[in-house]
Design brief:
single chain; 172 residues; mainly beta; Lipocalin; 2 helices
């Protein structure tokens, strides 16, 4: 029995070294990523059900109360109909990117509500970027969730690039 406990002890002692430090929570607490999220991107393209739409981020700013949270002001244009949204993005996890040691992959939750309306969008996002961002850094960012209105609820996603297959994109 003692031999069993000795093996468990050694496994637990060295386990952190074998995990490669992948899950660190959100590691960019000290960085303001607002410009990385919204700059260098004119708009995001996406789909609500089978309908294509465009979303423009008018303003993104880091919350003064929580450095992992960002306030987003955006509007959509779908068939000439404009809707203004505001909401939050909350970063939750960060992982290293396999075979790309200078890259980091962040995961989080978002919740946007329509101003002067009853629609909302909630879901998950993922953002890949360099580990040490500066004012010229870019990212790829993808959002996937549910669009809820008075009359319907449907899957929605948008990104600042064109994923080959949105169903294969991993969200945490």
């Amino acid at each position: 029995m003692m031999e069993f406990f000795r093996k468990v002890f050694w496994c637990l002692l060295f386990l952190p070294f074998f995990m490669n430090g992948q899950n660190n929570g959100f590691i960019h607490h000290d960085k303001n990523l607002a410009s990385v999220i919204s700059e260098n991107v004119e708009y995001f393209e996406g789909y609500s059900g089978q309908n294509k739409f465009v979303i423009y981020y008018d303003k993104v700013k880091q919350s003064s109360e929580n450095s992992d949270q960002y306030e987003v002001f955006a509007h959509t244009d779908s068939g000439g109909t404009r809707k203004n949204f505001k909401g939050t993005m909350i970063f939750r996890l960060s992982f290293g990117v396999r075979n790309q040691p200078d890259e980091i992959l962040h995961f989080g939750d978002f919740n946007f509500t329509e101003e002067n309306g009853s629609s909302s969008i909630q879901g998950k996002f993922r953002m890949q970027m360099v580990k040490q961002p500066d004012e010229n850094s870019h990212c790829t960012i993808t959002f996937k969730g549910k669009f809820n209105s008075e009359n319907s609820s449907e899957c929605v996603w948008w990104a600042n690039f064109a994923p080959n297959n949105i169903d294969e994109v991993i969200f945490k």
